[in-house]
Write a structure and sequence with these properties.
Strands 5, 6, 7, 8 and 9 form a five-stranded antiparallel β-sheet that branches. A five-stranded mixed β-sheet has the order 14-18-17-16-15, with no helix packed on it. It has a four-stranded antiparallel β-sheet with strand order 1-2-3-4, with no helix packed on it. With about 350 residues, the chain is mostly beta strands. The chain has no helices and 21 strands. The chain starts with 8 loop residues before the first strand and ends in an 11-residue tail after the last strand. Helices cover about 0% and strands about 35% of the residues. The structure holds beta-L-arabinofuranose. Beta-L-arabinofuranose binds near residues 94 and 95. This is Xylosidase-like protein. GO terms for molecular function: hydrolase activity, hydrolyzing O-glycosyl compounds. Belongs to the glycosyl hydrolase 43 family. Pfam families: Glyco_hydro_43.
Length: about 350
């Protein structure tokens, strides 16, 4: 597939349909001299752009064969938030997401960044339109930590919203093995370390219910369980082809919740299925094989709404010739079989 956006490097695409259009909330990758390391320091992004598309020309049937030729027309709405706009943030605006809040009639951008102490937190910023601009809160969302926020607004009467987050290694999730408060943060786990060993379960992504205005957590932080289909037990920490690493996403189809994620150092997009927004989810397979580049990160969205056509937004490093921190957003259609399993790779 050709990249959707070729005038900037973009990654970690969170796509949503607002007012009949697709909006993409990606990271904005940039050149840096910072050396590649397992802490992800080279992902040194400092602003966000928002992009929109009126339609998705099917990349399979369109004549598009190279970047910029014949693919869907994408509008760049420009810079919508910068690090220097965010009072609590010091650096590294990583993978964002956004949601519409019916209670306030506002659009809310969720984003991770390091705070002044170098700890990753999740911030919120609000705007009047899906394309922003977004005004950040003075402080990060209380009770949050780590990276990669993703929001599911459920289709119940209250439009209950759930925030998923977390990421291992540079994302610091492994530093919260004792609990979810600042007092539980264990700096001795910082760096490329994670739980391991016979019988040790993988760390789960974190999730919580959001308040009606989407600006605070309305429930305690919960560790999401991903069960191994074969054993019925939580996926093992040493099972790097199945364990959660980062890039949480949750979408709902026909009453089932599909929780998808990156497996990190095995470079897969995996998914698990459950009956409730906070899980448990049972591992069900892979969505995407490894792409060119170390990271993989995505979103899944139905477009047009209620069409049962589903699209995987993802990224790879083809446009930069394989530079891990210079990625480009792509899209392709995905399909389900009669049992609701995603026909993956
Ligand atoms: O873009 C920076 C980080 O790389 C994201 O937060 C991760 O999910 C990975 O894609």
């Amino acid at each position: 597939m050709p990249p959707l956006i070729t005038h900037l490097y973009t990654a970690d695409p969170s796509a949503h349909v607002f007012n009949g259009k697709i909006y993409i909330y990606p990271s904005h990758d940039r050149e840096t001299d910072i050396k590649f390391n397992d802490n992800g320091d080279q992902y040194d992004m400092n602003d966000y752009h928002v992009f929109s598309l009126d339609s998705l020309v099917d990349p399979v049937t369109s004549s598009a064969s190279k970047p910029g030729a014949g693919g869907p027309k994408v509008t760049d709405h420009g810079v919508v938030l910068r690090t220097e706009d965010v009072p609590w943030a010091s650096k590294q605006l990583w993978a964002p997401d956004a949601a519409y809040c019916a209670t306030t009639d506002k659009y809310v951008l969720f984003f991770p960044a390091r705070d002044q102490q170098g700890i990753f937190r999740i911030g919120v910023a609000t705007g009047d339109a899906p394309e922003g601009p977004f005004v950040p809160e003075e402080n990060y969302l209380p009770g949050t930590f780590s990276i990669d926020p993703a929001v599911l607004v459920d289709d119940d009467a209250d439009k209950t919203a759930y925030l998923y987050f977390g990421g291992l290694w540079g994302g610091q999730l492994q530093c919260y093995q004792k609990g979810h408060t600042d007092a539980d943060y264990d700096a001795s786990w910082a760096g490329a370390k994670e739980p391991s060993g016979p019988g040790v379960p993988a760390m789960g992504p974190r999730a919580a219910r959001l308040s009606a205005d989407l600006k605070t957590l309305a429930s305690p932080v919960h560790e999401v369980t991903i069960l191994d289909l074969a054993t019925g037990e939580p996926v093992a920490a040493d099972d790097h082809e199945k364990r959660f690493f980062e890039a949480a996403w949750c979408h709902k189809r026909r009453g089932k919740y599909y929780f998808s994620y990156s497996t990190g150092d095995t470079h897969l997009l995996a998914y698990a299925v459950g009956d409730a927004p906070l899980g448990p989810f049972t591992y069900a397979g892979t969505l995407l094989a490894p792409v060119l580049g170390w990271t993989t990160h995505h979103s899944v969205v139905e477009f047009p709404v209620r069409s049962d056509r589903w699209w995987l937004f993802y990224h790879d490093c083809e446009l930069s010739g394989g530079v891990d921190h210079l990625r480009s957003v792509k899209v392709k259609e995905i399909f389900y079989d009669g049992k609701g399993r995603i026909i993956g790779e």
